[in-house]
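Chapter summary example.
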Amino acid sequence: MAPDKGVQVMRAMIARRKRWDVIFAVVGLLSMLCGVVALVALIGSMAMEGVPRLSWDFFSSFPSRHADKAGILSAWVGTTLVMLVTALTAVPLGIAAGVYLEEYAAKNWITDLIEINVTNLAGVPSIIYGLLALGLFVYQLDLGQSIVAAGLTLAILILPVVIVATREAIRSIPGTIREGAFALGATKWQTVSQHVVPYSMAGILTGVIIGLSRAIGETAPIITIGALTYIAFLPDSPIKSEFPYVSFEWLSSAFTVMPIQMFNWVSRPQEAFHVNAAAAGLVLIVMTLLMNALAIFIRYHFRKRIKW
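The structure predicted for these 308 residues follows.
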């Protein structure tokens, strides 16, 4: 009799836990749907308002006081160049710092202190980075209100995200891979560069995607260092027709970016400028998706190469 009672109690516990599993799954699904529905609604509203405004003239024209003649040429070019500087600065430095802290740095209180500070920096408001960049890059290093100052500002903004993602990805690599490489006579650098980093690259690129997606939509730190709200010229071209065919003069050029251009249009009372802002928002979303798609493709390439 006792065993039957014990079996009934066990079945009741299993049934109760299954009900909680179902409840949690339903709550999680509803939470996800809330976010997805809100996102779809916002993008749909933006698309209905902004798609009619999209045209070649909108992409190839400078901002104007007349809404029907205004475009985003200087804004999308500036965003592209600023994000290029950000990526070329933050990604190598972030990955290198993460690899050093996880594979080379001694495990002591100094390393723990650095790890705590890096993690905390990931949650610092972006305006603080703007104030830091204003004092360091604009005034101390005399970079001025330029593309390179904006790129470096966004780079230090996303650097903690890249470092944390790199460390977490490296930690997920089993220690047996390192032991096997050492057993075959590989050095520390060979083990890290040929095994640990390639195997963890998928997780590292996930952090890079998150960081760059945050950077492309930031406004506060860019305004703080002096980005222009109206600009009717383009930076110098990075590619020249004469030797050495590459120019870095564009790094010191004045600039504007898509979020600032959108803010400028939204703050105006005319409805036509709000339509322009909606169209610019769609372009910014597409730019973000293209940037993420490139990173996802690179991540897939690494996963496929490791698999084979």
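To summarize the output: The chain has a mean pLDDT of 84.
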